[in-house]
Every structure is written in structure tokens, then in C-alpha cells.
Amino acid sequence: MGKKKLHGLFALMLAFLLVLSACSGGSTGTSSNEGSGSEGNSGGEETVEKETIKIGVLASMTGALEAYGKQTVNGFELGLDYATDGTGEINGQKIEFIVEDTETKPEVAIQKATKLLEEDEVDFLVGSSSSGDTLAVLPLAEEYETVMVVEPAVADSITGSEWNKYVFRTARNSSQDAVAGAAAIADKGVKIATLAPDSSFGQDGIAAFTEAAKELGAEIVHEEFADPAATDFTSNIQKIIEAKPDYLFVVWAGANSPWNQISDMKVQEKGIKISTGAPDIAALSTMNALVGMEGFTVYYHTLPQNDINNWLVEEHKKRFNGAVPDLFTPGGMSAALAIVEAIKQTDGNTEADALISAMEGMSFETPKGKMTFRAEDHQALQTLYAVKLQKVDGVDYPVPVLIRELSPEETAPPVRNK
Fold this sequence. Notes:
It comes from Bacillus mesophilus. Pfam families: Peripla_BP_6. Residues 1-21 form the signal peptide. With 418 residues, this protein is of the alpha/beta class. It folds into 2 domains: 53-172 and 303-382, 3-Layer(aba) Sandwich (Rossmann fold), CATH 3.40.50; 175-297 and 385-406, Rossmann fold (3-Layer(aba) Sandwich). It has 12 helices and 16 strands. A 7-stranded mixed β-sheet has the order 8-7-9-10-11-15-16, sandwiched between helices. A 6-stranded mixed β-sheet has the order 2-3-1-4-5-6, sandwiched between helices. Helix 9 (281-284) links the parallel strand 10 (273-278) and strand 11.
């Protein structure tokens, strides 16, 4: 019997005991106005407080992806505030969220997720920053029959080979990135080399990009995978130069980015154009040598034009000393918005089967516009952005300037969980 079924049985037994106690004249109860005779509680009826909905958020609050974890958590908190009009409640139920640091280590992610499920008895899991951490936790979502909203991990296998029915993803996946990245540079006869970390994130990202680029007629002349914790990329970049591609397409995440060494080794001066997904602001600050580069991005705060994004930008500035939301802030917000919408759809029922039924095919508004959980694999279809890096007055890093929006239909990835 699943955890939530046991909880339901316990609640039924408790309710029966309370009735017996009331009949015998005892004082046990959960009334918030006991004995007050206040308006709305006439006839001796008790006002029963509804159970708090608990959400466990797994994020890299330390480690190589610390910045991503903090962006996600900030966005999640803002999302709950927006969705509940600042009350922290929905359908009369309080919403509580508990953040646990995975340290960007899969074994720690398992420990923290187990704690959230067994000790905190959360109704949802959210996370995490690392695809490796997330893949380690997916089986627990199934074991404990708990819906997990994946954000911001992108490995295709999360909604592919390792997927189970409890997994929903508001983050885009590697294939969505790949479609956007390939559309920017791939064409018949174009020679492309790739660089990525040797991790689930990097391997899945390059596999998806290669598939999309080849469909457009491009030739992949070299694939280079670097140590995810590397700080020296000299040998990796030298191999790419020797392959003589027309483009180098880079998939990377984390503070130890290769951009400075790509510039120092004068890759572009050797006739190799650089393309990538425009990263977070910290990484953009290292990309001044790449002004003019065309690629794509998941988010930059000036790109989406809608009321939710306007609210996010202004509220984020108020709360965080004038700072604008970064790459993964809207993802955290989107995860919160999806959960609140699901709770509305089920009228507060947090049983997994009810939530899954409501969330499959569910559309909800986000800072990036409308997202929809595809019924087949629970991947959120969403807008991405084709951009060009440009210098903008008053900004000390290259800014992603919109070329065009890539629609949810245009970036819809293959279904890979069959």
C-alpha cells in the first residue's frame, strides 16, 4: 500500500475517534473557534483546519550549480506568492515548501529526497539543478507515489528512458535546446564540432543536437566531452581546432565555463564560428569576445512580453536589491505555478492519481507564456528564443537580443519514453 493511501486510512481512523470523543462529551477537536459561538459557526459546528500542502524542493544550494539552485528557489517562492496573491494558501489550504541542498551529488540528493518523503511527508517534490541528481531521485517519486516536478534539469532521459508516470517537467529538455540550437546554424554541408561536459546533461544534449543537426543536413566532424569539473580546456579545444569545423556548438552549465579559453586560443580567428545557448548573466559576463554570435536562449528578462514576466521582473528587483531574474528564475516560478494550478484542478486533492489525471495535458500561464504538459511524457512544451549577442549601453556583458520566438510547437521534442 502506498504512503498516501496509508495517510488516508490514518485520517479516516482519526476522524472516527474524534466523532466518538465528541459524542462522549470530550473536548478533543480541531476547531479554530471552539466555544466562541462566532458567526458562521452556529449550531455547534466546528471549523476544521484543512491539512497543509507540503512541497519539497531539491536544489544545488552549494556546489558547482549553486547559482542555478538559488535562482530556482527564488523563482519558486515568487511563483507561490504570485499564484496565491501573497496569501500562501489555495482552496483554504496553506502551502509550505521545504528546501534541501543536494550539493550537486546524486547520493546526497537521494538522502535529502528520502528525508522529504518520509519525515516531512511532502505532497510534491520539485528539482533539481543537476540532471544526475534528478535521475537518482526519479525512482523514489515512483516508490512513494509522489508527483515530482522537474526543474531545471534537462537530460532527455528524465522524460525518456528513465521516466515514470509521477514525473512532470516544467524545464525544457535537451531535445528542445537541440532543435533551437540546430535551427540557428545547421544546414546542408555545414561542418560542426561540439563541446560538452561528460555528464548526463552533456551527453544527452549533444546526442539531441546531433540528431537535429543531421536532419538539417549538417555533418558532425568531432564530439568533445570534458570533465564536468575541469578548469583547463586546452586539450579539448585543441582537438576541436584540429577537426576544422565551420562551427563549434557548445553545451555547458556551471561556473567553470570554457569561454575564456575559447577566446584565448583564438578559435574564432581560425575561422570557426561559435554557437551556444546564451547562459546566465554570470557566464554572459565572460563572453564579451563572442559579441555577434547567434544562438538561442531559454530566458532573458527582456525577451518575454507578458504580464507575468513583467510582475516577475519588478518583484524580483524589489526583493533582491535591484537584480533582475536570471536564466532559471522563471523556471522555478513556472514549477510553482504548475503545482498551484494542479491543486486548483483537483480541488485540493493531493493523491497522485488525481494530480496526474489533472496535469496530463494541462496548460498554465508562466513568465514565458503558456506551457502545456504533453500527455505522453509530461514534458512541458514551451517557447524558446533565437537570439544574437549584442552590446547594449549601460550593460557590461553581451545581451541576448531577440531574433525571433521559437514557438512551443516548433520546439516540441520527440517523445522518448516508449
